[in-house]
Amino acid sequence: xxxxxxxxxxxxxxxxxxxxxxxxxxxxxxxxxxxxxxxxxxxxxxxxxxxxxxxxxxxxxxxxxxxxxxxxxxxxxxxxxxxxxxxxxxxxxx
Length: 94
Known about the structure:
Blueprint: H1 2-20, H2 34-39, H3 41-50, H4 60-63, H5 68-71, H6 81-91
């Protein structure tokens, strides 16, 4: 009985998420790698808007597993606190 209730609750929450369009997790500049962000169509557009050419950069293979926060000190000033704030803001809004 308990298992059935838990299964039902899980199914209901998944249905609610699908109907409302709420994602299970929001993409983040702190926890998601550049590759994970680039794999998401919306996030990739945000990245390309603020850091043009990031997904096609010659060194992409070297930094794709890093987060943007980790990449910032290596970006030679291309990625600023303001850039990160703008990307973070756009990733958390629709």
